[in-house]
Specification:
It comes from Splendidivirga corallicola. This is HipA N-terminal domain-containing protein. The chain has one domain. It contains 4 helices and 5 strands; from the N terminus they run βββαβαααβ. A 5-stranded antiparallel beta sheet has the order 4-3-2-1-5. It starts with a strand and ends with a strand.
Length: 109
């Protein structure tokens, strides 16, 4: 299992988990949910108290990933399998990404 913090404008909004079977869950933190001024991170993952489940990486996160030759360079340089979308996401979206979202690996996960 691998876990990453999802930051929205540098504030922790929730947790993205890749389970051992390759499926994913996303959940918002309770504090984020209780603050009516905090938005959902995307239209496809609106604020909700329930966990979101998917057999594949959620399209919102998948669309943050590099494509084509950029993906090849990043994967080769960082020794990431091109099909390891979660690893690629944690590598490319940890410091800077398109929009307000960053993805930061939780150590020991």
């Amino acid at each position: 299992m691998r876990i990453a913090k999802i930051l929205y404008k540098d504030e922790e909004a929730g947790i993205l988990t890749q389970h051992d079977d390759g499926s994913f869950t996303f959940r918002y933190h309770t504090i984020w949910m209780e603050d009516n001024n905090k938005p959902g991170i995307s239209l496809t993952l609106p604020k909700n108290r329930r966990e979101y489940h998917s057999k594949f990486l959620f399209p919102f996160f998948f669309n943050i990933l590099p494509e084509g030759s950029n993906k090849q360079v990043v994967c080769k340089h960082n020794r990431i399998d091109q099909d390891d979308y979660f690893g690629l996401l944690m590598t490319t979206a940890k410091d800077d990404s398109i929009g307000a979202i960053r993805v930061v690996k939780i150590e020991n996960s």
